[in-house]
Design goal:
Helix content is 24%, strand content 12%.
């Protein structure tokens, strides 16, 4: 099945970055996050920038949990955010996922099992 290359508008059945001298196969484990100009390795959680010449900065990788730039996360498209969330979650323990979900949803629980803002919220 043919589809558009994630970087260019050309049809490329293997999703290869177009310069044949620098061709890099973007496999099932390496997914282009076009909204932020990066590639993420789903098996390691490492993100790599896509350079101005459309090559991938393999020597400039950053683990998804080490990215501190909120703008990077805010710029993710819905589809790219789903991919990043899936990858990020795969590197968290169940307790870390639970704690993160509580913090994001404002439902931090105390040692008694009640919300920290109980009875006020």
């Amino acid at each position: 099945m043919s589809s558009n290359c994630h970087i260019h508008s050309e049809i490329d059945t293997d999703c290869v970055l177009c310069d044949s001298n620098k061709a890099v196969l973007v496999t099932e484990d390496k997914v282009v996050l076009s909204s932020v100009g990066s590639v993420i390795d789903k098996s390691t959680g490492i993100t790599y920038p896509i350079m101005a010449d459309d090559t991938i900065g393999w020597d400039e990788g950053t683990h998804i949990h080490d990215i501190e730039n909120e703008e990077w996360f805010d710029s993710l498209s819905t589809n790219d955010l789903d991919i990043v969330t899936e990858v990020s979650d795969s590197f968290l323990s169940d307790k870390e996922k639970h704690d993160f979900d509580e913090a994001v949803n404002g439902e931090l629980m105390g040692p008694d099992g009640l919300p920290l803002n109980f009875p006020f919220g």
